[in-house]
Automatic annotation (TrEMBL):
InterPro entries: FtsQ, POTRA, POTRA_FtsQ_type. The lineage of its organism: Bacteria, Pseudomonadati, Verrucomicrobiota, Opitutia, Opitutales. It is found in: Membrane. Residues 316-329 have a biased composition (Polar residues). This is POTRA domain-containing protein. GO terms for cellular component: membrane. Residues 290-341 are annotated as: Disordered. It comes from Cephaloticoccus capnophilus. Residues 51-119 form the POTRA domain. Its main location: membrane.
Amino acid sequence: MSRVARRRQWQRRLRRVGFAVGLIGLCAGVLFVAHRLAEGDLQLSRASNAEPIREVVLRTDGVLDQAWIMRRLAVPPEATLIDLDLAVLRERLLADRQVITATLTRKFPATLEVSLSERSPVARINVRSSPEEAAPRPHLVARDGVVYPGSGYDARLLAELPWLGGVRLRRVSGDSSAAQFAPIFGMPLVAELLATARNEAPALYKTWRVVSLARLESDAEIEVRTDTIDRIIFNARESAGFLRQVAQLDLLLDSVQPDAAGAISEINLAIGRMVDGRIQVPVTFKEGAGGVGGSGARSAELIAPPPPSSRRQVENGRSGTERAPNNSLFFHPTRPSAREF
């Protein structure tokens, strides 16, 4: 082999060795950098996790406050964000049925963010959680029928809520101190009736004391007891009819003299009928009521103007443009046991 050929052979060998050494050096460099980065991330994570939680931020659409959330979460003072089991904490919050949804988020380095959606009460109900309890305790009922103790509400707001009657609660879980009951049947309809009365006839709504659901499932009727009337029966077959019935009741009571209104025992809006373009509503007067036909329970029929077909007509009726005629011209006897308006 000539000198030139040997030189070329050595050059090829050196190039191969140099390429191999360079490749090994490159791989070693990549591994070293990756290792250092991993150590840096670990140290950063340890530094973040080592700091205890400084703040719990609460965001809610209801009335629950910071004190409630701290009691409910019961996070140890030395706990860090990584120490927390968010699923367990979420279950603690949802155990209170005032809470509909709960979302917990870690905000590094040391903040826990809690977002809540809460139920709003539409009525009250007395609950005896166990036979050992001497007296029932008041609970709240939401629009979806969920019964819960309630926390953080203004006492004046709760005092305006009517009580529920004719309801048999069914326990689904919990002990005597934290009993949970199945949702009450038909509460969306009841909530719709209450909202209609509160928005369209607030003065009338303030007199409502007890709402009975005893005949809701069997006869699709809701009964209301007020300060002066023992029973007002509403037809609950369709919630769209509540506006008509509430407006009709408001007009009828406006057409009755104050002393006669206090003598009414029952108004049945569920079986009203049309007569000559007006609604006839059966009314029963209290026994021995003066000024309404002598002693003994009496029946009567109130004939109201045609029911409003829209909220605009209800407002017009309140403003005086569509008021009922004067009682002295509109009240006349028809038979011994009945009277008409």
